[in-house]
Design brief:
The protein is an alpha/beta fold. The chain has seven helices and six strands, in the order βααβαβαααβαββ. A six-stranded mixed beta sheet has the order 3-2-4-1-5-6.
Length: 182
């Protein structure tokens, strides 16, 4: 089985470093997605509007999968990183430096890694002939999948830069996921 993860189109939230939220994708990002060619036997999308709209712009009809949602930021959801740094710099700096720490009422990076790993495990066990799968998701989910597949610690998160519309291909062989370069 092969899985192509596609980061959804740019949103005002991504541009403004807003944590969480459910933003419409930029029209230019949707237009850019229309130029990409992606084929699949099965298509999934995170529940964010940007993920679903990006999948549709790719010409795909996704099944919305809650496990593929962005990280939950709890009390900080919908707030900009610059704003939070101005209000509570010590707590925000500590959170940025320690990925095992959750935001108030939110998820840690390890929580996201576990959720995405569980979904990958479930995907690998689905019956049928699904050999080519596409999932359009928030960039944080792409990062989590890459870290999981490489068995990298959550601290590696800051070393994985996933831009809007980036594509990452994974392959499953004998129950083990690998990063696949085309």
């Amino acid at each position: 089985m092969s899985l192509t993860l596609v980061a959804h189109a740019l949103t005002p939230g991504l541009r403004g470093l807003v944590l969480g939220g459910d933003h419409e994708p930029d029209p230019s990002g949707v237009d850019a997605a229309r130029e990409l060619t992606v084929e699949a036997d099965a298509v999934f999308a995170g529940p964010e509007v940007a993920a679903v709209r990006t999948a549709e712009a790719l010409g795909l009809t996704p099944v919305v999968e809650p496990a593929l949602r962005d990280r939950e930021y709890g009390d900080w959801s919908g707030r900009g990183l610059e704003e939070l740094l101005g209000v509570d710099p010590e707590r925000v700096t500590a959170w940025l430096e320690r990925p095992h720490t959750a935001t108030p009422g939110g998820e840690s990076e390890n929580d996201v890694l576990t959720r995405v790993a569980d979904w990958l495990g479930d995907l690998g066990e689905l019956p049928g002939e699904r050999r080519t799968v596409v999932a359009v998701v928030h960039p944080a989910v792409v990062r989590a999948a890459v870290l999981y597949v490489l068995d990298a610690p959550a601290e590696s998160l800051r070393h994985v830069d996933v831009r809007p519309l980036a594509r990452v291909r994974l392959s499953l062989h004998e129950g083990s996921w690998s990063l696949a370069f085309a």
